[in-house]
Amino acid sequence: MQLFRKSALREPSEQAVSIARYILRKSIELKATGITIEGEPSRYLVSYKIEDKWHECGWLNSTGHEVILHLKSLLQPFTDHTETIDFLYKEQPYRFTAEFKKTEQGTSVELTRLGNEA
Predict the structure, then answer these.
(1) What distance in Å separates the CA atoms of residue 48 and residue 114, rounded to the nearest whole number?
(2) Which carries the bigger pLDDT value, residue 25 or residue 81?
(3) Cα 47 to chain centroid, rounded
(4) Whole-angstrom distance, CA of residue 99 vs CA of residue 39
(5) Residues 28-56: pLDDT tens digits?
(6) What is the pTM assigned to this prediction?
């Protein structure tokens, strides 16, 4: 799964930040700084704060659930596991299962959409 696709965000950066806060449920601050380059989709540099230090996790021009998965892989001690992720997007509930596996290349995340029954 690509964490950062080449499609434009359909929502402002606050959407990705609020989704990530909902899922992480930790006292971690997130921010997304936006830029627009003429002729290209808007992009957002997503950062998170742990113990008074900001860390950049990458440029975002994709949907919020991909930000969540990337942040979770950076912030949590890793073990192979599967979890269900619920969040709101455009005021609609969505549910995904995410299967996290450790590979030689790093963390592999397989995401499956279960529908709008969250």
Answers:
(1) 28
(2) 81
(3) 11
(4) 36
(5) 555 655 555 565 555 666 666 666 776 66
(6) 0.35
Neighbours of 51 (CB within 10 A): 5
Structure tokens at 30: 């997130």
For the record, the structure tokens of 102 come out as 């450790």
What SS3 state is found at 74?
Answer: helix
Residues 60-76 pLDDT 10s: 555 455 555 566 555 55
Q: Give the torsion through C-alpha atoms of 24, 54, 9, 92, to 10 deg.
A: 20
What the block records as the tokens of 107 is: 């963390």
E-only strand ranges, 20-80: 29-35, 43-50, 53-60
CB atoms within 10 A of CB 111: 14
